Amino acid sequence: MKNVLIIGGNGFIGTNLARYLSKDFKVYSFDIQNPKEKNPYVTYIEGDFFDDEMLENVLENIDVVIHSLSTVNPGNSNKRFMQGYSRDFVQSAYLFDLCVQKNIKVIFLSSGGTVYGIQEEQPIKETALANPINHYGSVKLCIETVLKTFNKQSHSNMLIARISNPYGPGQDFNKGVGFIDAALKKTLNHEQIEIWGDGSVVRDYIYIEDVCEMIGSLINYNGKEEVFNLSSNQGISLNDVIEKMKKFGLKPDVVYKEARSVDVPKVILDNHKIAHIHEFKIRSFDEGLKLYIDYLRK
Question: What's the predicted TM-score (pTM) here?
Answer without folding.
Answer: 0.95
